Amino acid sequence: MSSVAARRRLLGGAIGTFVEWYDFLIYGLSVPVLAHHFFSDSNPTAAILGTFAIYAVAFFARPLGGVVFGKLGDRMGRINILGITVLLMGGATLAMGLLPTYETIGLAAPVLLLLCRLVQGFAVGGETTGGMTYVVESAPPGRRGRWVGYVGAAAFVPAAVSAMLILGITAAVGRDAYVDWAWRIPFILGALLAVVGFVLRRALDDPAEYTETLSETPAVNPDGLTARNNLKALITVVLLVAIMGVGGYMIASYMYSYLVKVVGLDTTPALLSNALAMLVLTVMTPLWGAVSDRIGRKPLMFGGTVTVVLLAYPAFELASSGTVVGAFAGQLLLVLGIAPIHAGCWVTMVELFPTKVRFSGHALSYNLGFAIFGGTAPLVAAALVSSTGSPLAPAFYLMAIAVFALVVIFFTPETKDVELRESAFERDTIDAPAPTPAPAEY
């Protein structure tokens, strides 16, 4: 495969991840405005919690999308499904940007917002897995960690892009105009990005890893997920998502609202500090991915998780100081742990499944994990602050999740050198030394 073709495959896998996270994160950064437009202003706290609840509920549509698109992706091919999911995401985001508000149609407004988010979640159920699967199966030997790291970077770039876009629109039209109507512009742009992703993907073919496996095993059977080793992989991925989801969405989706609503920072410095932290995360993720190709995935996951345990409390203490420097420094401390965690977890989760059930297995477990842990992270964090009155409450939640993750990582097999057509758990079983037979009795 030529270098040009390789770059096209990498870009084709990453573009959908960029669109997916843009669509999701633009919602997270717009929570204060959405709460104002889609809920009653009589109880601002309830409006914020309601907006975060809709954010969380969308994640429960992801496992359903994972089941549907996962089976289709293993049967019909990776690229066919990736074209569908990116357009479906873009359509839902466009609809959100055009919805009437609570002031216009009352309770129907949050209901319609919820429906759009459910469609988004359903589409994302196939998009993330499809992009990661396509990139891992297309990557050159010894580069899978680095390539998936680039896809991970594409997931974090939208946070910075979204923040700068909101700042630019606000500066151009004024804060009042942005709150009134211009908040819709970023959502409409999300639909245009989806069209670009669709066009890029139409020119791509399925990776040889998939097509050769399909030819060798004509009946690619997603029901193979019931096999013992694949069940282990399903459970492992669901549990690994805990630290990824809570850590990632804590900084990518919750931190801006936290700085504005809890700390009392102005919107502009809050957006800027969050954007800068996400840019650092964007740069660090592929670098750590390259490191994982050399030393393995587990050392990164262990090191990053321990870092989160040690730094979560001082990170939130700095972020809650009320200063721009403190806000950025606190988020930067979180990034130091989150970057290696994501770089190690993302590629591990895909490599745990054999090629014939990779799309369906990863889609189901990854999205189920995010429904349980990731999508609820901002809601849980906001509820903890509201119920305890402590701005440091989210730190303890993050630390508890990290301690739990250390146990999960310990039992997760190393996947750096695994052959993609076999299960990582099966390889560990094969490689394990045979038990010494008992001496014969005479």
From TrEMBL:
Task: Give start and end of each Major facilitator superfamily (MFS) profile domain.
Answer: 9-416
Membrane topology type: Multi-pass membrane protein
Instruction: Cite the entry's keywords alphabetically.
Output: Cell membrane, Membrane, Symport, Transmembrane, Transmembrane helix, Transport
| Pfam families linked to this entry | MFS_1
| PANTHER family from the UniProt entry | ALPHA-KETOGLUTARATE PERMEASE (PTHR43528:SF1)
Family assignment?
Belongs to the major facilitator superfamily. Metabolite:H+ Symporter (MHS) family (TC 2.A.1.6) family.
Q: What is this protein called?
A: MFS transporter
Source organism per UniProt = Rhodococcus pseudokoreensis
Give the lineage. Answer: Bacteria, Bacillati, Actinomycetota, Actinomycetes, Mycobacteriales
